[in-house]
Structure formats: structure tokens, C-alpha cells
Design brief:
The chain contains 4 helices and 5 strands, in the order ββαβαβαβα. By secondary structure, the chain is of the alpha/beta class. It has one domain. It starts with 5 loop residues before the first strand and ends with a helix.
């Protein structure tokens, strides 16, 4: 089995190709570790866009969000400026969010609240490709 190429992209860079693309917004260490686990099984080329509080490039964030196949937002790690755009972003069907906030009614905007990356179909496809290859040998 050959592992796929992983393209990590951060602001202000952009990458336009036909690879599956994932956007991580302010990922916690746990999310990064789970991401590493899934990507270590990937046999296809994947673009991983990473946005964190140090960047403050909202134009980049919104344009990459528009093009990404899946977006994962860790709301609890998001700075106040980026948090203003979270409700817009989670209104999109392929955006998933993680939060411990039980007061803010994000659930009225999106039912895509997750507690770990196992809940996202995008990552199940990566695992299935790996299992299929093992069965063929």
C-alpha cells in the first residue's frame, strides 16, 4: 500500500486542484491527533487547510471554506473575531463543529455537532479505501 500525499496549506497560500480538501479551523491538539490517525491511513492525495488564531485572514478563511469538501471548526478554540463568522460557516451542510458550549444555540443552525472526527463520513471513506486494499492482497 502506498500512502497518499498530504498537502498542508496555511494562510495566505491557496492550492487549487481536484484533490479532496479539508479545512480545520482552530483545531485542538485532540483534533490534530485524530486527523493524523486518519491521514496516516489515506491512500489518496488530500489537501488539508489549517486556520488558527494567529492568522486573522478572514478573506482566506471564507474563500477556502467555500471550496473545501469538509470543514471542521473547534468553536471553543476560536478567537472573538473569527467566532463572528462561525454561524455562517456552520450553516453549510459539509461543516462540522465541536464545542462544549451548551448555552449558545448552534444546534438551531446546524445538526452537525460532533465530539470527534469519527462522526464525519469523509473520514470513513479514507478508512474504507485502506481496508479494501488490505483485502485484495
Amino acid at each position: 500500500m502506498n500512502l497518499g500525499k498530504i498537502n498542508i496549506v496555511t494562510p495566505p497560500d491557496k492550492l487549487f486542484n481536484l484533490n479532496p480538501s479539508l479545512l480545520l479551523v482552530n483545531p485542538s491538539m485532540l483534533v490534530k491527533q485524530q486527523m493524523q490517525k486518519y491521514l496516516s491511513c489515506s491512500i489518496e492525495e488530500v489537501n488539508v487547510f489549517v486556520y488558527d488564531d494567529r492568522e486573522h485572514d478572514l478573506d482566506w478563511l471564507l474563500s477556502v471554506h467555500f471550496r473545501a469538501d469538509v470543514t471542521v471548526i473547534d468553536i471553543d478554540n476560536t478567537d472573538p473575531i473569527t467566532k463572528l463568522f462561525v454561524t455562517y460557516m456552520i450553516a453549510h451542510p459539509e461543516t462540522y463543529y465541536i464545542t462544549n458550549d451548551e448555552i449558545t444555540p448552534y444546534g438551531l443552525i446546524s445538526k452537525n455537532r460532533i465530539y470527534d472526527l469519527d462522526s464525519i463520513p469523509f473520514f470513513h471513506k479514507i478508512g474504507e479505501d485502506d481496508e479494501d486494499d488490505e483485502g485484495e492482497q
